[in-house]
Prior knowledge:
globular, mainly alpha, 4 helices, 52% helix
Amino acid sequence: VVEDKASANFSDEVLQAIHEGSKGSQRSNLMQLPTDCPQRDERLGWMGDASLSVDSMMLHFDYTSMAEAFVDTMVDEMISGSLPDVVPYQRGGGRPADLSWSAAFLGSLHSMWK
Length: 114
């Protein structure tokens, strides 16, 4: 479980609900690594999801140690410099990953550096 790092309070109730819903959605998908769709059988480390959400996860949560572990897993999964769509690679996705999905590697490193 990740701890909250920041919060926001909006005077507009709709914006507040969207903000809280997005944080809740992210939190429910952080199971030692960023996952996708816990209601379906997609509880894998999909790199596309990680690529798109790493910045907001770093802002909202104490996510650094989890991000470091996920990057270490990415390094372990690299073959000839390429990453799979899912880390750790199990099933689903392909290898090499779509370029925008493998951007999770550099995006995670950059977010931790900031």
